Amino acid sequence: MVAIDFVGVTKSYGKRVVVDGMSFTVAPGECLGLLGPNGAGKSTITRLLLGMATPDAGKITVFGVPVPARARLARARIGVVPQFDNLDHRFTVRENLLVFGRYFGMSKREVEAVSPSLLEFARLENKADARVAELSGGMKRRLTLARALINDPQLLVMDEPTTGLDPQARHLIWERLRSLLTRGKTILLTTHFMEEAERLCDRLCVVEQGRKIAEGRPHALIDEQIGCQVVEVYGGNPHELRSLVKPYAQRIERSGETLFCYAPDPEQLLTQLRGVAGLRLLQRPPNLEDVFLRLTGREMKD
Amino acid sequence: MTEGYMAVMPANGWNWVAVWRRNYLAWKKIALAAVLGNLAEPMISLFALGFGLGIMIGRVEGTSYVAFLAAGMAAVSAMTSATYETIYSTFARMGGERTWEAMLCTQLTLGDIVLGELAWAGTKSLLAGTAITLVAAMLGYAAWPSLLYALPIIALTGLAFASLAMIVTALAPNYDCLVFYQTLVLTPMLFLSGAVFPVSQMPSAFQQVSSLLPLAHSVDLIRSVMLGRPAESLGLHITTLCVYAVLPFFLSAALLRRRLMR
Which pTM does this prediction carry? Predict the structure, then answer.
């Protein structure tokens, strides 16, 4: 049985179509990343999944349970890490777990039985009696993760789990998420961090304006969409440079003052450019960001 | 549509307790200040209004003005504490503090949350009302054993006003709108319900309005209990308060669903 099944799901608010005929599945034990720019409809997809919004059309099931009709039953097997911190700031770390466990019908004893291992998992053993207001951003996010695990869910839904965290805090979260995946948990995560998507996700679903525009394994997507080396050119007159490199590049894109040249033979292209003064050149393998920007456009949209 | 509405109803008879306990835990951290406030406020009003005005007024409906007022104050404090809890604290938990957002990811339904919040607001009014009846009894303005009968009525009053305020919370776009409810609904109700002067002194049109107001029914009940008088139309009063507690619950759940689960 699939963990998540979205079939032709559509949701509009007024005249604005936020999710437009979205279909995807997530297999048990898999990590699927919903990748998309801000406002692409990623958060709405997670709300639909939890039964917090009702789709206008389409079908959603979570472990075979229809949502939103039986969303409460589905939520018993889901842990949620929301985009915005919604911990209880007046309470201590321990109290946050207790209160949240009770929302799942757990007794104090049941919560106390699982709390030590959750706190250890979140590396918060020494902070059990600290108030949430005293925690750093990374600690708060880890507490949110521990809290999401209190009902021992099979599926974790994470809405931009590392947005706003510093690199150290982000790496610790990624490491914790990987350890959850090795334990066989299923993860659906939304992100606009390419690095996060590349490191964690088995499969990606690129979303724009509520529509799926590409899907696949990260490396397969890179090969499929780019498939050659990238040369970044900073400085100079982009217009003149473009005509100079055109014969040697498969495709050229401009973003601000930078030219991105997709070159099957980068050496040839670089030879052309070395004669031009005042340029900075960078040759690198293609990455997910290239895919993302190719699919959603280099220039700012809003 | 109906199916969607049913999904936000309480999942069972006990889920709401988790919400109540969360609010109790938060309250416990500031309990001392809260209880002192509960006691100080009625003492100040009773002394100031009761003795100040009482000297000029003399006896009202066969009793001293302080005793008349004390019973009114008990009902009013149940009304205000349940209302404030619901339109300010609950509004914050529903919105900016994101407490409800976290709850909605769990086994709680929207109805469980609303029910827990109403029960908590009812508890807060029970605390405030108990404080005022205790003060009144210690000053000799209420009969001791009958106090016990006043408590469930105070709690019911609190539930009714919390339930009404939940509609306001469900509809209000921001804090500023909450103030209108206070000034345009609660304050007039305070004067129309016989809390500070007898209803019989008002023109008959106002008396008819008064008979529809939940506070008037609460004041009547609490006053007869506190003054040790036989309660008239007991069934009518209790039924009215129950209707005010139950109907707005269903309405606010529907409105909140529209607001939060779009």
Answer: 0.92
